[in-house]
Amino acid sequence: MADPTPLWTASDYAVVDVEGNGQQPPDLVEISIVPIQNGTIGQPKNWLVRPPRPITAMARHFHRITDDEVADAPTAVRSPIASREPDDGLYLQDPQITL
């Protein structure tokens, strides 16, 4: 018989959710990360990101994030969790998140 322990309790990982501004293509307005260790849900973290274009009414309807809320947020490239690699790829980093 297979081990009845669910896989989500046997691994360490993070669940990531992003919200966009509703434009085509969408720009990032929020990043949320929840670490999960041994099946225990950790402290969620989220960051607002100022998109280069306004948030549409439809996107605002779903996630309730307004242009005013992101007006003082960093842009995606200048976010505390984003950095540019020499090859110009964008990756996320945060020394406060350990898995």
Verbal overview:
Residues 15-76 form the Exonuclease domain. This is Exonuclease. Keywords: Exonuclease, Hydrolase, Nuclease. Residues 73-99 are annotated as: Disordered. This protein has 99 residues and is an alpha+beta fold. The chain has a single domain (7-92), classed as 2-Layer Sandwich (Nucleotidyltransferase, domain 5), CATH 3.30.420.10. 15% of the residues lie in helices and 30% in strands. The strands form two sheets. Strands 1, 2, 3 and 4 form a four-stranded antiparallel β-sheet that branches. Strands 5-6 form a two-stranded antiparallel sheet. It starts with 6 loop residues before the first helix and ends in a 7-residue tail after the last strand.
Give a quick rundown of the structure.
The radius of gyration is 16 Å and the shape is elongated. With 99 residues, it is of the alpha+beta class.
Key attributes of the depicted protein:
99 residues, Nucleotidyltransferase, domain 5, four-stranded antiparallel beta sheet, 3 helices, elongated, disordered C terminus, Ribonucl_H, nuclease
Query: In percent terms, what proportion of residues is strand?
Result: 25-35%
Q: Give the class-level CATH name.
A: Alpha Beta
CATH architecture: 2-Layer Sandwich
Q: Which regions have little confidence, pLDDT < 50, spanning 5+ residues?
A: 83-91, 94-99
Structural class, judged by helices and strands? alpha+beta
Shape: elongated
> Which series of helices and strands comes N to C?
HEEEEHHEE
Give average pLDDT, whole number: 79
CATH topology: Nucleotidyltransferase, domain 5
Keywords: Exonuclease, Hydrolase, Nuclease
InterPro entries: Ribonucl_H, RNaseH-like_sf, RNaseH_sf
Organism: Kribbella orskensis
Protein name: Exonuclease
